[in-house]
Amino acid sequence: MKFKVLFIAGLLCAIIVQSCKKENLAVVSKEQEDLSNVKAALIKLGFDTATAIIKGEDIFVEEDILLKRSELFKTQPRQAVIRPNSIGALGYLLRSFTYFIANSLTHHRDVLSGISEIRNVMPNRVTMTRVYTEAGADLVFRGYNESSTICGFASWPTMNWGIATIELVVGESVNINLFQWRNLNASQRRTLIAHEIGHAIGIRHTNWRQYGEGEFFSITNRDGSPITYGAYTVPNTNNTSLNPDPSSIFNGNSCGRSWGSGFTVGDRLAIRYVSTNIFNP
Ligand SMILES: [Zn+2]
Q1: Residue spans of beta strands (DSSP E) within 108-248
Q2: Is 125 part of any domain?
Q3: Gap between the terminal Cα atoms of the chain
Q4: Nearest to 203 by CA among 80, 62, 77, 67
């Protein structure tokens, strides 16, 4: 009798252990599947997966561009944006947005001067309106403190596919590392803010090739639909070499750069490109 009980107990244990193992295996393979989906999406966007940092919902690419895992498939912009700025007769357009400068960030005057540099290049159609509550803001400027050489990072925009238009929706935050920020001068701060806003409206690093990333190309699916991969060069800019525009404000790894003569011709083309289309010049 005792033996029988022990035997049944042992059998039960074996079944439980076995089913636990199976569950673990299932969890692991689900995670691996998610990870490989994320990597495939990054490759399509033209980002390097070897240097990407994936932390749960947050995915950092090119060092200071933040993608959200749950929004990855709504994130189409490539170098300046999406693909060529037309889909049939449609292009995409940057939606006007509001912004809030949180108290966690200091030197608001320098933040505003970086914002106005971007604003001055954009068409009047796009408005950037300051609001004084975080809840009412599309884009939030925040400070954080981390002992690192990274000056800050910004969220990548998402695409809102409407019936008649495709909107580019500004990324939700620009995050500035106070550890670096407090030692920068006004000119360096203005440059950093303009650089990070660039990411939030879909401009990636001008020197993306130095990150080992592939160039834009398009293939056709079996069902005839196109699939596009890689980084997209802003029309009428040179992006054939590793560092095609050394003075570009949007070059990566440029923490501490001064404003100098400001945006290059290529930078201006990129800002115009994300905020206009052929119907809304
Ligand atoms: Zn950057």
Answers
A1: 128-130, 139-144, 152-155, 158-161, 166-169, 173-177, 217-220, 226-229
A2: yes
A3: 88
A4: 80
Please state whether beta strands 158-161 and 92-94 pair in parallel, antiparallel, or not at all (unpaired): unpaired
Mean pLDDT, residues 190-203: 96
Tokens of 142: 């925040």
CATH number at residue 84: 3.40.390.10
Number of folded domains that form the chain: 1
- Indicate the SS3 state at residue 231: strand
pLDDT tens-digit readout, 119-146? 999 999 899 999 999 999 999 999 999 9
CA of 160 from ligand 1 middle (Å) equals 23
For residue 65, the CA-to-ligand 1 centroid distance in Å is 6
State in Å: Cα 101 to ligand 1 middle: 19
Domain extent, residue 144, equals 53-275
